[in-house]
Amino acid sequence: MKYTKSLLLGLIIVIFGLSSLSFWFGQKVSRRYTPLVEAALTIKLEATIAHLWFEEVVSGDRNEDINQVWGHLDQAEWYAQAMITGGENSKGVLIPLREEALLKTIQDVQIGLNSFRKIAQLRLMKQENDVGIGSEIDQKFDQVYENLFVQAGIVEQELKVQIAIANHRYKNIQITLQFGIFLWGLLLLWVIYRFEQNAMKLVETATKANRAKNSFLTIISHELRTPMNGVLGMTQLLRTTSLTEEQKDYCDIIMESGVRLVNTLTDILDFSKIEAESNNLTYSTFSLSKLVISSVKLFLGSAHAKGLALNYQIDPEIEDQVISDQEVLHRIFSNLVANGIKFTEKGEINIRLELIKKSEKVQRIGFVISDTGIGIPKEDQTDVFKPFKQVDGSSTRNFEGTGLGLFIVKSLVEMLGDEIKLEDNPSGGCRFVFEVTMEYSSAITQTKLENENPMTTYAPPLTNSTDVLIVEDNIIAQQVIGKLLRTQKVSFDVANSGEEAIECIQEKKYGLIFMDILMPNMDGYEVTKIIRNPTENPNHNTMIIALTALADSATEQKCLASGMNKVITKPIDFQVIKQLVVDHLI
């Protein structure tokens, strides 16, 4: 449609322009001929006045009236000459005549004016009785005047005809051009309409295909994350049992491979969302320091395995309780830290947060993630943010990965309203820098930064027993969460469906509820809304944690809107579950 509108506007402009051009040419002709018409009229007028004044001379005071005769006659002669050679006076410029017939006629007018003057002079020299009205010379004088008047009138009429012809010609040209352009415009409109219809069909087909692709990827994500939850969950549990060092190594290999598979899947899903422009920010209030620390803890094992130090530093002037998209920031940190670990063989990865500026309710924070790895050549630095692009893209490349990590980081930073920059690290390696403006919550007491070694972590297992409800229809997922809770000496009940969950919450008070989202008959959203009704059960204030294999912001927003407090994406990280137990059941 935009092309059709543009073409219509263009046609209107062209037609208006042609009309203006034709009008201008017509006016140009009029401007050329109109002064000549006025000159012919002036000749007739001046000759007539001279004729009348001369009659006064014949019958009156010759000395007084003869000057009027010669003055008007001079004026008529000047205009006649100007029509032939051109001239200028107070009324404007006269362009000389070009038409031969008109030139001959105006020359005849000049001859007539000359005859008029000679006869007038002759009448002045003769006796009174020889020049009176009705005399022979008087009749000749009148005849010369009449011829002069007629010839000047012919010039006037011919010039008017020329103006009319020119206007008619340009009017016809204008109409012809406008009609031709209109027809061409209709043809172009039809062609563009057909083109746009085909383009719209192609866009619609592509949109449907993109939706189908995204839907397929979402389903695949769910179907892969659910069994991977069992694989990684049981591997984590197995790692806590009595194993030989060799068996522990096997568990670590399974965990590392499983996490890599899940991360690859997450990258592909994130890429599809960015392509479809379906990523949305979900704002919440959270502790910035806890977010950084949790990101550090997530990669401690990988860093230690390569003998790398993983450090963080947060400017004490930064307000800790901020309002932003916690998940987006976590994904940015995770991708950049993972990138640093992957390309660093020795040294360290550093996360630094510094206050750029601060106002009453808003602060701008600079984020710097640096490493001492292999670095990136200057000529390749602009390419690393492109999808599926790696500096070493050959078949013998040394590093694995999809090449989507930094592209996703760039897109997520842009969602937050800034851009990420890659700089050379003075210590070697890479230095990624970006800034984010965040509101902060001054009503909440700032969380003090943990004074701990970032390489040491994790709370001890619980010794008390507070009941937890697991609402999950997948048996393996039930076992994974249940066995984890047992390692923490936490008692729990299991509801296999939404209906069973309703029965449980009406009979018993729980300290924590883990809620699956997709269940037959009654899903997790509906169950949560019922739980949040204070008249229905004693658990309306209980902490509800969503467990989902759907890794997208829309699902998270829907979970939070239904009344859930937090969303955990499968496969489940044991440390996250342990921390939730510590935070809400101790």
Description of the molecule:
The structure is a single chain. The protein is built from 15 helices and 14 strands. With 586 residues, the protein is an alpha/beta fold. It folds into 3 domains: 2-192, Four Helix Bundle (Hemerythrin (Met), subunit A), CATH 1.20.120.1730; 283-454, Heat Shock Protein 90; 458-586, 3-Layer(aba) Sandwich (Rossmann fold), CATH 3.40.50.2300. The strands form 3 sheets. Strands 3, 4, 5, 6, 7, 8 and 9 form a 7-stranded mixed beta sheet that branches. Strand 1 (87-89) and strand 2 form a beta hairpin. Helix 3 (100-125) runs antiparallel to helix 5 (136-239). The longest helix is centred in the N-terminal third of the chain and has 104 residues, at 136-239. It is rod-shaped. The two termini are 63 Å apart.
Count of discrete alpha- or pi-helical segments spanning 4 or more residues: 15
User: Which geometry do the CA atoms define?
Assistant: rod-shaped
Task: Count the beta strands.
Answer: 14
Give, in order, the helices and strands: HHEEHHHHEHHEEHEEHEEEHEHEHEHEH
Distance from N terminus to C terminus (CA atoms, Å) equals 63 Å
Quick recap of the structure?
This protein is an alpha/beta fold and 586 residues long. It contains 15 helices and 14 strands. Strands 3, 4, 5, 6, 7, 8 and 9 form a seven-stranded mixed β-sheet that branches. The protein has a five-stranded parallel β-sheet with strand order 11-10-12-13-14, sandwiched between helices. Strands 1-2 form a two-stranded antiparallel ribbon.
Write the layout of secondary structure elements.
Blueprint (H helix, E strand, L loop, with lengths): L1 H58 L2 H24 L1 E3 L2 E3 L5 H26 L2 H4 L4 H104 L5 H32 L7 E4 H11 L1 H6 L3 E6 L6 E4 L1 H17 L5 E11 L3 E10 L33 H11 L5 E4 L5 E11 L27 E4 L3 H13 L4 E4 L2 H10 L4 E5 L7 H8 L11 E6 L4 H10 L3 E4 L4 H12 L1
Parallel strand pairs: 4-6, 10-11, 10-12, 12-13, 13-14
Antiparallel strand pairs: 1-2, 3-5, 5-9, 6-7, 7-9, 8-9
Helix pairs in contact: 1-2, 1-5, 2-3, 3-5, 5-6, 5-11, 6-10, 7-9, 9-10, 12-13
